[in-house]
Amino acid sequence: MKRPAAVVRRVATSSGLALVLVCALAGPAWAGDAVATNAAPADTVAASATVPDTQALVAEYKVRDARGERSLTLVRSADRIEYRQPGEPAELWRQTPDGIARLELFAAEKRSVAWAPGDLRTTGRMPQWEQLASPINPQLRDKLKRDGSAKVLGLSAERYRGESAEGQAIALEWLSAEGLPAYYRTGPAKPKAGDTGFYELKLVKLERVGPQTAFTATGDYRETDYADLGDMELDPFAAAYLKRNGHAH
What we know:
Elements: E1 12-13, E2 16-17, E3 20-21, E4 25-26, H1 45-48, E5 56-65, E6 68-76, E7 80-84, E8 90-96, E9 99-106, E10 111-115, H2 117-122, H3 129-132, E11 145-152, E12 155-163, E13 169-175, E14 180-186, E15 199-209, H4 211-214, E16 222-225, H5 236-245
Parallel strand pairs: 3-4, 10-16
Antiparallel strand pairs: 1-2, 5-6, 5-15, 6-7, 7-8, 8-9, 9-10, 11-12, 12-13, 13-14, 14-15
């Protein structure tokens, strides 16, 4: 799949969200993967990112970088995680007895591509669940210096500061109870036009709702297994998918 090479953030491409363990990376392309070490102890995302089984956490973000401004929505329950960006295929991750499964959702075509855990392992694209739970690297705080606290949307957040291995300034505000970033920035606070080193992620809405309405409904989607795409050259959707993302094995 076509993915960006940047290692400081997860961003969308023409084929969906960039995942570090999924291609040039191999799971979500995590913010802060290359930061200078100035560690402050941090609790694990697995412990802090717990959502009641009867609810899903819906976090809406505003993203800004050299490409402009766009939205990012994360939906997370105990066993499902979904990422959505306008105009891009949604990505739905699910825990199964055999590991993590992935479903790419193409709304315009009402088609989906299902990656079984075995497909992800075979192609070297199996992420860790704790990484999927946040749009930035959950270990980032270990490499930054604690810098006080803040209030974001009425919630208590921890502030961190530091810099990347390339010398870019990093700012982070972290919601420990939710296991999510409230704010993340790499690069200058006031970037110049076209500054490729700038990336900003800002939480604008956070709510808990029933999972039956929080996740994208897929009942009217035609689902295709990733492993079957190579035998579907006459299917226009499959042919376009393979041309864009590479051949299935």
